[in-house]
Structures are given as C-alpha cells and as structure tokens.
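To fix ideas, we reproduce below a protein record of this kind.
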Amino acid sequence: MTLVKWNPFRELEDMSERLNRLTARTDWPVGEESLVTAEWSPLVDIQETDKEYLIKAELPEIKKDDVKVFIKDGLLTIEGERKQELEEKDKKFHRIERSYGKFMRCFNMPENTDEKSVKAEFANGLLAVHLAKSAAAKPRSIEVRVV
C-alpha cells in the first residue's frame, strides 16, 4: 500500500476542470445556424479630464471591421465579435480559456458631452472612444467687480 499526501487544492482543481468540461462552450448545429452558449464582455477603463471623457476597451485579436461604435438616444454602444481560432491539421489546442463570441457594452452619455464630436480610434487591440465635453459644461472664471 502506497501513502499519498493529501492536497486539498488538487481536489479543487480537479473539480474545477470537471465543472469546466460539463459547461464547456460548444456550438450545437441547428439547421444552418449554430447556437453560441456564452458571451463575453471586454474590459474597459473610463477616464475624465477637463476636456473629455475617454473610454478604453481591450479588444485583443479583433479586427477593426468586427467592431462597431454608435450613439443612439444618449447611449454609447460598443459591439462586435471575437472569432475563435479553429483547430487545423498541424495545430492542436490543449486548453482554451479566453472567451469568444459576440459582445456589447453600453454606456449612458454624460449630459455635458457633445455627441457630434465623439471620436474613436483602434490600434493594437485597444479601442479608445473620446467623448468631448460641451463648451457650456466647461468651467469658466467670472471676474467680480467691486461697485
């Protein structure tokens, strides 16, 4: 009989792997369409300066053509899709942990922004959306005269 040292973390890892296999994302054929069982959401940072709000979204390995940014009824929407790599003859996956599929993030536009001057840039997997503040919203100093 061989004694084996018990490692509770090994059991948790095994249980996690079994659970991941049970809930694994797969495409089930339905006619000519397929159902995607999970969606993901890119991480964003939102910054504010005196002149603008800046939303930065991480979109690694996504093409510019697969991302849309639009404004409707005071709501800024970023949507797109990260496509999953397919296994090929000479390529085998041992683990897939990153999320794939369609995504959508919506943000309420602050009242002090100018919707007509919104700009978006996309480079190196980072989408930057600039929301300029309107001139009326910028602080201004008022000279006080003594009468």
Q: What stands out?
A: The helical segments are 8-22. Residues 38-85+98-137 form a domain with the Immunoglobulin-like fold (CATH 2.60.40.790). Residues 25-38 have pLDDT under 50 and may be disordered.
